[in-house]
Amino acid sequence: MTEPQFLIPLWADLTAVGLGGVQGALFASGFQGQRRLDLLGVAIIGVVMGLGGGMIRDLLLNTTPVALQSDGYLITVTAAALVGMLLANLFQRLNAVIVALDAVAIGMFGALGTTKALALGLPLIPSVFVGACAAVGGGLLRDVFMGLPVAMMHVGSLYAVAAAVGCAVLAVLDLVGVAAVPAAITCIAVTAVIRVLAVAFDISLPEQRALYRRKVAVETSTIPIIRP
Fold it and tell me: Where is the Glycine transporter domain (predicted)?
């Protein structure tokens, strides 16, 4: 995959931005009490989440952020954030819809990030890294802006893992000669399936402390007991 042979379609990039904007606004709208946000705050979180992944992708690739090269990005993400605010009460009763939107958005940002990295000539592993950063970048900036613990750093439902696996699948498919579009679709599907299954069945990586306790228990069991 080379840059002249592959160009991220504008509609695909705008779709990912729009999904991120809706998801960010829905997330911010659900807070109450001390973290309750006004309409501007919710809109800002929607914009940050919609544009964050693409901005991080382009900064890692040392290219001018595409979101600043066209009016369409800011218009799309702002409109999406407004839709998320207006329909927050409806969507919050449809948890499955929110999970699905989140999963698809992660997959799209990961696919776009990985394909752009590959098009610019990056090796396989760095391309996967760029794609995974693009996938989780919006959520990371959202948590920073809201003063929350960064979600992907804590025990959760395979947020970053789903993105990394999907991006790795895309990179391997590209390596064996699969065309960019079907490879990207596969990446989105794999990421979304892992994310949805992780949420549905509460699957997560083991907690570090649990691993430490297990290691101590194993080591302790090998200590001989000397009886008087």
Answer: 10-88, 100-173
Task: Tell me the C-alpha distance between 75 and 153, whole Å.
Answer: 31
Measured in whole angstroms, how far is the alpha carbon of residue 55 from the centre of its chain? 13
Does the pTM exceed 0.90? no
Q: What span, in angstroms and rounded, lies between the C-alpha atoms of 179 and 177? A: 6
CA angle 157, 147, 167 (to 5 degrees): 40
Q: Is the dihedral of CA 33, 34, 40, 42 positive or negative?
A: negative
pLDDT digits (tens, 9 = 90+) for 96-113: 777 888 899 999 999 999
Query: Which tokens sit at 86?
Result: 């207006």
Nearest to 139 by CA among 122, 115, 117, 156: 156
Phi, psi of 175 (to 5 degrees): -65, -35
pLDDT tens digits, 116-146: 999 999 999 999 999 999 999 998 999 899 8
Task: Give buried/exposed letters for 195-221 (b at 16+ CB in 10 A, else e).
Answer: bbebbeeeeeeeeeeeeeeeeeeeeee
Q: What DSSP string describes 42-97?
A: HHHHHHHHHHHHHHHHHHHTTS--GGGS-HHHHHHHHHHHHHHHHTHHHHTT-HHH
